[in-house]
Amino acid sequence: MLSSQFLELKVKYNNQKLIYLDTAASALKPQAVIETEKDFLSSRYSNISRGISNLSVSVTKEYAQARQKVLQFVTSKSNGKLVITNSATTALNMAASFYEDKLQLGDEILVSYAEHHSNFLPWIKLAKKTGAVLKVLEVDNFGQLTIDNLVKVLNPKIKVVALTYVSNVTGAITPVRQMAELIHKAGADFIVDAAQAVGHMPVDFSEIDCEMAAWSAHKVYGPTALGFLYCKDRIIDEFSNFLVGGGTVDDINFADSDIKPIYKKGLEKLEAGTPPISQMIAFAKSIEMLQTVNIKNIVNHEKQLTEELINLQSLPGIEILGSISSDNRLGIISFTHQNIHPHDLGQFLDDAGVVCRVGHNCAVPIHRRFGKVASVRFSLGLYNNLNDVKQAIAVTKEAINFLDKV
Ligand code: PMP
């Protein structure tokens, strides 16, 4: 789909046609996004918010429109806002920081074995800081987070639950909407790590009813150094600062010996310093592209490719981590070979022009759960086609024939 928009696909890679199967790490950028950022930087660049020049006022407006466009892409109701950060990782650290003054000794935090380290480590840090206990929700044998397993562990001591929407290892989709209801009934807040969901399936945080949700633009065909924390309005009101600095205060009171900053209300108190302006303006184009192709068409396209990719399972010695059905999952497939190290497979694939990812992929917990140290991961984007997938499988087969000498 739209592959002509992605010029990097036309560049020879290792003297071959590039087959890019690493969208879960970061997506390629369409020309419209690149041109928009270039045009903005070369014709109308200015800082936002604190300028009185016409230039600054008009960029401030454009930036606000981009924020609105992104918000409307991931919500259907108007009871939440987007805090603009520089990554999903920053957003998740920010989400965890919200609870620093709200948890007490003995409270519990629930994460899962399916989490990326960016939605695991901030909660470990929070537990250490507050004296809360970190609990880890089990996955089933396919790496799936299930309602049954959640119900087994929910209890009134849990104050916050942070779960991935889509696993960056198995591609499994978590039933977050049903889980939100149960989590709220149990008296806890719900944080969703949507880094692998946005851009590959319809996402509506206001419908899920989660308190916060995080993701990054660079995985959604947008620029790097741009991330988001969706927050319900209630959370924005209750948030004390994460980072402080320029743009976060109305005044600083020197009247007493105790110097007191008068912090702004709303989003501004949470967005210190100059934000990723050009990235945000360019990202609006990624969203326009997704709206034009229509997310339903993307789902169907990537599902068809996923069905083909699952055929990897029939190669000798290959084990797919997680489900081998194309239902209830996205196009992220991690696999191991019984005799060949993932790094050797990855090197062979790369030499043949197939770009993928190898290692623990920042997901040690689920690799441990599957009894693995590392895996090879193929992940799809809208620009991939059946030929890419067939070629990746063919090269994997060649790699096995060449490397499996045991
Ligand atoms: N969560 C998940 C599920 C991810 O896959 C990633 C990126 N691999 C992140 C969080 C962190 O995203 P970023 O590196 O863009 O901050």
Structural write-up:
By secondary structure, this protein is of the alpha/beta class. The chain folds into two domains: 129 residues, Alpha-Beta Complex (Aspartate Aminotransferase, domain 1), CATH 3.90.1150; 258 residues, Type I PLP-dependent aspartate aminotransferase-like (Major domain) (Aspartate Aminotransferase, domain 2). It is built from 13 helices and 15 strands. The chain has a seven-stranded mixed β-sheet with strand order 2-8-7-6-5-3-4, with helices on both faces. A hairpin with a 6-residue loop joins strand 9 and strand 10. Helix 2 crosses helix 9. It starts with 18 loop residues before the first strand and ends with a helix. 4'-deoxy-4'-aminopyridoxal-5'-phosphate (PMP) binds next to helix 3.
What overall form do the CA principal axes indicate?
Answer: globular
Helicity level, as a percent range? 25-40%
Q: How far from one another are the termini? A: 41 Å
Number of helices: 13
Category from helices, strands and their pairing: alpha/beta
DSSP strand tally: 15
* Spatial strand order of the main sheet: 2-8-7-6-5-3-4
Strand content: 15-25%
Q: What name does the CATH topology of the largest domain carry?
A: Aspartate Aminotransferase, domain 2
Mean of all residue-level pLDDT scores: 96
- The succession of helices and strands, N to C, reads EHHEHEHEHEHEHEEHEEHHEEHEEHEH
Q: Describe the main β-sheet briefly.
A: 7 strands, mixed
- What ligands does this structure carry? 4'-deoxy-4'-aminopyridoxal-5'-phosphate
Q: Do you know the CATH architecture of the largest domain? A: 3-Layer(aba) Sandwich
Uncertain residue segments: none
CATH superfamily of the largest domain: Type I PLP-dependent aspartate aminotransferase-like (Major domain)
Work out the count of structural domains. Answer: 2
Q: Compute the CA-based radius of gyration.
A: 22 Å
Can you tell me the CATH class of the largest domain?
Answer: Alpha Beta
